[in-house]
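Re: [help] complex structure
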Amino acid sequence: MHIVVCIKQIPNPDALAAVLRVDEAACAVVLPPGHPLVISPFDEQAIEAALRIRDQLGPDVKITAVTLGPESARTALKQALSLGADDAVHLLDAAFGSADSYVTAHALAAAIRKLGDVDLVLAGRQAADWDAGIVGLGVAEILDLPSVSFACGIEVRAGAILIERVLQDGFETVHSPLPALVTISNELGEVRKPSLRETMRAARKPVAVWSGVDLALDARCLTARRTLLQLFIPPKNTQCEMIAGSSGNEQGARLAQRLVEARLA
Amino acid sequence: MSAATDVLIVAPSVAKRLPATVPELLGAGLRVSQQSGGRVVAALLGDATAELAEELIARGVDRVHSISSAQLSEDVVEAHLPAVLEVCRQVKPQLVLLTHDLIGAELAPRLAFRLDGAVASGCVDVSFAGGHTRCTRPCYGGIARAVDAFALTPVVATIRAGVFEPAPRQSGRQGEIVTYVTDSEATTRTRVLERKLESAEGVRLEDARAIVAGGRGLEGPEGFRVLEDLARALDAAVGASRVPCDLGWCPHSWQIGLTGKTVTPELYIAVGISGAGHHMAGCGNAKAIVAINIDPEAAIFQDARFGAVGDYREIVPALAAEVRRLKQAT
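Output below.
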């Protein structure tokens, strides 16, 4: 069984609010020098989902990590290899510099076609930078694969998959034939850490680099459909009425009185 | 170039009712249609009735394409795609609007790629000016907002709940209703085997006038018992930020935020929630936010109308007791 995991390298989203600034003229985020780049957490969970399938089925499961991104994204692929991926493919091209979700989905779909014998494509439910959740489903549409989104568990059974999926008020189990595309949600749970042995092995594993020409992408597929017109941080309200008191009991009682006065309670 | 100007609203009926988000989609759609000079058309999916089609017309729709099939009423995402595609081929819309929920979030990208259009997800604003559709959406975990412009059609956009005013009913509006019955079963490859729904006690989060929500600062599942008591006093629902859900302190269905539910209550009491953009994306449109947090530097105070710094174990029970006392006094 061959699983492709689509991953994206993004600025570490933890505690980003304190450091993220926006250059409104350039429509770009500005981060302090040295702010770490990581695999988007939902994509990390997609890698974990692939590893759990290998735990279930054994070593015949081959896992290929694919990313589209600048030179730095090689680190994300190395990390995927150290987590246990067998192969890594870096889609790298100056023409991808302005890629939106349309271009990215076409490039990833072309890469999956080029890989050939793919049974299952996994991706995070959304990348934690643009939070769009478009690319994975776009890949499914381009490759005409059935898709199931917001999965929190996958089990391979008799050449098909059973997907546990998060609903607004519960869970459902969905059956899909293979090949298929599944997007993974945070409810999948804890991810494993890279082992020292795998990290050493990963250092020696090669990373394939494919360009737009290698993927035979035409100009149309390389043309972004989205124009980013504006990027801004919405202004915050600083008019918070702080409820003081000599004890928590007093604060609680005063807060109740203010809420009733404001007709909120 | 096509001169597409119509706005198509995708309205799935749930248990023979329109979800509360559909009038909001119409609110968004009517505004865009005034800017683009087009009409508002609706795709009514599922176990639709004539009353639902009439309601859409009363709220501003000019033509309703009503499509029923057993698969549609079962919320099978894959079954919705051919139905909406069929309507799109007839209407040739400039803009397709869906609710940003489990169905909309999966349907929108597939629809956009199939129609060779563009897609914007989780929008909080949408407009049309100078031949461009503009979509504003939260990004970077809700910290920032991006305004995307699209020159081509159709643009498929999902709209977050609670940001648009619902389109009001007007008496005496006339509109056209086209009905079809489809059998999409032949085209669906995925099928739902089992559904386990968590029975919500009391008020549903999405419908609640008041919500009491807990975060990491509760320090354990027992904190939610304290919140539940306050919720009873306020006739409120109980919610949570992502961390307590991921840690198993409360059900996943309680999650409010970018990857959970979007809520718009009158009163939102955030207890032990730091106020990360990820969470605020789900509750930032509440009319009044009250923050109770041990950390005076917590970002949540910048979004709050009232704040109290201290131990929630003391503040929350006192707040619940005083609310009960004041309510009895009136």
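Residues 205-329 of chain B form a domain with the Rossmann fold fold (CATH 3.40.50.1220).
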